[in-house]
Specification:
heterodimer, A: mainly alpha, B: mainly alpha
C-alpha cells in the first residue's frame, strides 16, 4: 500500500493515474461497436444481393447501396476514435474528461451498431423486393436514409462530447 | 503524505496490477481475436465454396480470392500485434511511473480494438464470400460484382488496424 499511496500522491485528485483507461475504453467502444453494426449490415444485405443477383444480374450494381450505407457507419466510429486519441495525447488528462470520452465512444458505438443492424435487415428485404420490382428502389433508399440518420445522431452527440476541451489539473476537489 | 484520491471498485484494480499485464493482453488479443475472425471466415467460405464446386468445378479455383480476403484480416492482426509489441521495451523500471500506466492502458485499448474489428470483419467476409460462391455457381457474371462487397467487408479490419496504429503512437516509446 505504500507504493500505491506514493504513486497516487504524485498526481492530483483531478488527474489520477487511472484516468486514461476510460478514455481508451471510449476509443474501443466507439470503433468496435460501429464496426459490429457495419459488418452485420454488410453481411446481411449481401445475402439478399447474392440471392437476387442470380435472377437479375444487371441490377446488382444498383443494389450495392445498403453496403455503402453500412460502410459509412464504420467511418463515423473512426472519426470519434481519432478525436479521442488526440485527447489522450494531452499531457494533462483530467478524470472528468476521460468520462466524457468514454461517453462519446459509447454513444457513437451503440447508435452505429443499431443503425447497422437496421441497415442489414432493410437491405436484405429491400434488394430482394427490388429484384422483383425495380420501381421499389427509391423507397428502399428512403428507408435506408432514415436508418443511417440514427448513426448520424450518435456521431453528432459524440462529437459534442469529445470536443469539449479540458486539460485543467489544478481544480481543487472539495475538502 | 497527500491524500491518494478516490479509489473505488475497479480503479483500485486498475492501479494495483503491473502495467505490463495490460500491454501483454493487448498484443495477445490483437493477434488472437483477428485469427479467430479469419478462421471463422475460412470455415464459412470453405463449406460453401467446396460444396458448390461439386457441380461447377470452376468455383474451387476462382473463389480462392475470397479466402485471400480472409487471410488479409489475419495479416492486419499480425501487423497490429507487432506495432503494439514494438512499444514494450526492455527497460523495466520498478515501481511503474504514471506514464507507464497510461501507456499500458493505451496499448490494451489498441489491442482490443484491432481484435474486435478483426473478428467482425472475418465473419462478415465469410458470409459475403459464401453468398458470392453460391451465386457465382448459378450465374457466372456475378463474380466481380459481388467481390466489390467483399472489399467493403475487409475494410472493417483495416479501420481497426489504422485506429490501433494511431492509438499506439500516444503510448511512450519504451514502456
Amino acid at each position: 500500500m505504500h507504493l500505491l499511496s506514493a504513486l497516487l500522491a504524485t498526481v492530483s485528485q483531478t488527474c489520477p493515474v487511472y484516468a486514461p483507461f476510460f478514455g481508451a475504453m471510449g476509443v474501443v467502444s466507439g470503433l468496435s461497436f460501429t464496426v459490429v453494426g457495419a459488418g452485420y449490415g454488410t453481411a446481411k444485405s449481401s445475402v439478399g444481393i447474392s440471392s437476387m443477383g442470380v435472377m437479375k444480374p444487371e441490377l446488382v450494381m444498383k443494389a450495392i447501396i445498403p453496403v455503402i450505407f453500412a460502410g459509412a457507419l464504420s467511418v463515423y466510429g473512426l472519426i470519434i476514435a481519432v478525436i479521442i486519441t488526440g485527447n489522450l495525447g494531452n499531457a494533462d488528462y483530467p478524470l472528468k474528461k476521460s468520462f466524457l470520452d468514454l461517453g462519446a465512444g459509447l454513444t457513437v458505438g451503440l447508435c452505429g451498431m443499431a443503425a447497422g443492424m437496421a441497415i442489414g435487415v432493410i437491405g436484405d428485404a429491400g434488394v430482394r423486393g427490388f429484384g422483383q420490382q425495380p420501381k421499389l428502389y427509391v423507397g428502399m433508399v428512403l428507408v435506408l436514409i432514415f436508418a443511417e440518420a440514427l448513426g448520424l445522431f450518435g456521431l453528432i452527440i459524440a462529437l459534442l462530447l469529445a470536443n469539449k476541451q479540458d486539460t485543467d489539473c489544478t481544480v481543487a476537489a472539495p475538502a | 503524505m497527500a491524500d491518494p484520491g478516490v479509489i473505488w471498485g475497479s480503479t483500485f484494480f486498475l492501479v494495483t496490477l503491473n502495467p505490463r499485464i495490460w500491454a501483454g493482453l493487448g498484443v495477445g488479443l490483437a493477434m488472437g481475436m483477428s485469427g479467430i475472425g479469419a478462421a471463422w471466415g475460412f470455415a464459412i467460405i470453405g463449406t460453401s465454396m467446396l460444396g458448390a464446386s461439386v457441380r461447377v468445378p470452376r468455383i474451387s479455383s476462382k473463389h480462392l480470392i475470397s479466402i485471400i480476403f480472409c487471410e488479409a484480416v489475419a495479416i492486419f492482426g499480425i501487423i497490429s500485434g507487432l506495432v503494439i509489441l514494438s512499444r514494450i521495451g526492455n527497460n523495466v523500471v520498478e515501481p511503474p511511473t504514471p506514464t507507464d500506466f497510461k501507456s499500458s492502458y493505451i496499448l490494451f485499448a489498441s489491442g482490443v480494438t484491432a481484435g474486435i474489428c478483426g473478428i467482425v470483419s472475418g465473419l462478415s467476409v465469410g458470409v459475403v464470400g459464401s453468398g458470392c460462391a453460391l451465386a457465382d455457381a448459378m450465374n457466372g457474371s456475378l463474380f466481380v460484382k459481388l467481390l466489390v462487397i467483399e472489399i467493403f467487408a475487409s475494410a472493417l479490419a483495416l479501420f481497426g488496424l489504422i485506429s490501433a496504429m494511431l492509438l499506439t503512437t500516444k503510448a511512450s516509446v519504451d514502456m
